[in-house]
Amino acid sequence: MNKLLIGLATLILFSCNTEIKNDNENSKNQPNLKTEVNGKIKVLNFGTAHLSQTSDANSSLINLNDPNEKADLKKLVEKIVEFKPTIICLELEPKNNDYIASTFSEYVKDQTKRLNYSDELNSIGLEVARLSGTNRIYGIDSQTGFNYPSLIEISNKNVADSLYISKVMDNYQKVNALKFKEQFKTINTRDYKMETFNLYNVLATQHTTGNQEGVDEITKFYQRNLKMYSNFNDIEMTENDRVFILLGATHTAYFDIFLENNPKFQLENPNTYTEY
Description:
Helix 4 (67-81) crosses helix 6 (120-132) and helix 10 (190-204) packs across helix 12. The protein has helices at 2-8, 11-14, 26-29, 67-81, 97-109, 120-132, 148-155, 159-176, 180-187, 190-204, 213-233, 249-260; strands at 41-48, 87-90, 137-139, 242-248, 265-267. It is 50% helix and 9% strand. The protein contains 12 helices and 5 strands. It is α/β, with parallel strands linked by helices. A 5-stranded parallel β-sheet has the order 3-2-4-1-5, with helices on both faces. The chain is globular and about 60 Å long.
């Protein structure tokens, strides 16, 4: 049980996850993309690992002091810049928008001036904005707390559910240990995102007799993602905009489903931007 409780903290990491799989099956690893834009707003919904300052007990093991890892980060940023975003959305709450704007105005002149949050917001989010020449950067997060350990404790009473969750947790650890390029490639596959989406659905089914603890807890997480989606839709956009969203991988799984069913938006394939 201790292993499951430790592993569960990794849920909030990307907020993400699944078994490492071969990415050659592109049809499985892409969102439901349409071939024609027809005036839709293009969106690159991109999953990230948390590179620093995360409250998660288990976080990505990527070492950006490694010259090879730093080089791959630079290549990823340059690849995303090719998308030519005009709007960038980060995993910060909207109340931080003034802070984001003031920090970015300093960051453009001096890249040591950074947001005091997990470093992917700077190393990917702000850097993509700087190189793309856009200053339209918005926070869309909505923080909410959950009682995951209680659901794990309940799942331990069912052998099949306990084994399934243990398997996913083991996969989280494997993903966390990957090098930068492979980690980002993995967490942006369709299989990976749908596996973590299903994990939350499985947790929602955990309950004691006569109660619905799983539904009560996972409803909070679903509500968080809906609030994030609402925040996203509050941003003024036109069909000429190109939107880059940088979130933990579980959030991107929810956003894939929200966006691919909204006729206003056209999802880009994130796997295109992890090939460099």
